[in-house]
Amino acid sequence: GQQLNQSPQSMFIQEGEDVSMNCTSSSIFNTWLWYKQDPGEGPVLLIALYKAGELTSNGRLTAQFGITRKDSFLNISASIPSDVGIYFCAGRWDTGNQFYFGTGTSLTVIP
Amino acid sequence: ETGVTQTPRHLVMGMTNKKSLKCEQHLGHNAMYWYKQSAKKPLELMFVYNFKEQTENNSVPSRFSPECPNSSHLFLHLHTLQPEDSALYLCASSQVGLIDTEAFFGQGTRLTVV
Could you say which residues from 56 to 95 on chain B have a Cβ atom under 8 Å away from some Cβ of chain A? Predict the structure, then answer.
C-alpha cells in the first residue's frame, strides 16, 4: 500500500510559537487532507487540498499541496494550548479511492 | 446530532465473547468505512462499503465481520478476538461519485480484549 511519512513524530513547543509539519508520499496524490485527533476522539478534518500548489488557510492553520503532488505541509501560527493533539495527513490518488493516512505528529503546547 | 455516531464508546470483551460495534451517519453519504487505530501505527483501513456493497476487505481476519444494512448504518461484528485486536475502531463516511467529499469520522470505539 501507499506509504505516507509524517515528520516530525512529535513536537514540544511554547505557547505562541509557530508550528510546521509535513507529510511525504512515495506516490502521487490528487487530494491531501489534514486531520486533528484529540485523545479518545475520532479525527476531525482541518483542511482539504485538491490542486497541486494550492495554499489554503483555516484560521491560524495553513496547508499547502506540494507541486510534486507527493507532499503537503501544515503550519500553525501562534499556537495555543488547545492545539494539543495528534495531526494526521491523508492522501487519495483518485476520486472514489480509499484515503491513506500518515503516522501522525503529536503536538504538545507548553503554556 | 453529530455527523457520524459510534456506539459503544468503550467495550471490554473476553476472547470468547461476541459483540458488535455500531456506526450511523447523518450526512447523506454513500460510502462508509471501518478503520483500526493501534498505538504508534497509521490508521489501517479494514472495510469499505459503497452504496451498501462491500468494495474492499484489506485482508482482515474473519473474526471481524462487517454488515451494512443500508447506506446510513454500518456494523462490525466481533467474535473470538485476540488481545492484539485491542485498539480504537473508527468509522467514517464520505460521498463518492460525481462529487467526492472528504472522510468524516466518528468518535471511535475503544476496544479492549482480555
Answer: 56, 90, 92
Name residue, grid cell 466481533. Answer: B78
Distance CA B69, CA B72 (A): 8
CB-CB contact of B33 with B43 (8 Å): no
Q: A43: buried, middle or exposed (CB in 10 Å: 19+, 13-18, 0-12)? A: buried
Q: Which of A2, A98, A105, A106 to mutate to test the interface with B (most CBs of B within 10 A)?
A: A98
By CB neighbour count within 10 A (0-12 exposed, 13-18 middle, 19+ buried), where does A97 fall?
middle
Look-up of cell digits 509539519: A21
Residues of A whose CB is below 8 A from B107: 40-42
Residue with cell 482539504: A48
* CB contact B49 to A (< 8 Å): no
pLDDT (tens digit, 9 = 90+) per residue, A44-102? Answer: 999 999 999 999 999 999 999 999 999 999 999 999 999 999 999 999 887 666 788 99
Three-class DSSP category at A36: strand
- Model confidence pLDDT, tens digit, residues B8-49: 999 999 999 999 999 999 999 989 999 999 987 788 899 999
